[in-house]
Write a structure and sequence with these properties.
Number of domains: 1
Order of helices and strands: HHEEEEHEEH
Largest sheet: 4 strands, antiparallel
Shape: elongated
Distance between the termini: 25 Å
Strand content: 15-25%
Structural class: alpha+beta
Radius of gyration: 17 Å
């Protein structure tokens, strides 16, 4: 009898890839804005901000007051002269590592990751992409990024 490990649906794969993309874009900006010398995963404030970004919240950084807060709709009148500019979208370099046989797959695109995810036992694979320090187990990453 084979025990089936953690898997992911196509809908979850879509959300997972969307959030990975969002976090990958946010990571360098978080380092810059919060003046971090290390990966933002080591900063509780950066983690809190990243979680809100993944949920689609707008983050406001007031460099004059050295303050970071989440934009609230009832405060929109305070930001009438703000223009949001799109930043250059970085190309993500993604690698998968099979913990079972030691083989690495990559670089692969985010689109290829989306198609591969529903076919993988998440416990057997780890993921690395541009901007993070080490490979992270896919089952653990799924829980962190989209929940259980």
């Amino acid at each position: 009898m084979k025990i089936i490990g953690h898997t992911i649906t196509e809908k979850e794969a879509d959300l997972f890839c969307e959030r990975i993309f969002c976090l990958a874009q946010a990571r360098p900006r978080l380092r810059e804005i919060l003046k971090l010398d290390s990966d933002p995963k080591h900063s509780p404030l950066a983690q809190k901000i990243a979680k809100q970004l993944v949920l689609g919240k707008l983050i406001v950084v007031d460099n004059n007051k050295n303050d970071v807060f989440f934009f609230r709709e009832d405060k929109s009148h305070e930001f009438t002269d703000v223009t949001l500019l799109a930043d250059e979208t970085p190309e993500l370099e993604i690698h998968l590592y099979n913990n079972r046989n030691g083989k690495e797959l990559g670089p692969i695109s985010l689109l290829k990751l989306y198609y591969l995810l529903p076919k993988l036992n998440l416990e057997e694979f780890s993921l690395w992409h541009t901007g993070i320090e080490d490979f992270v187990n896919l089952a653990e990453l799924k829980i962190r990024v989209i929940g259980s």
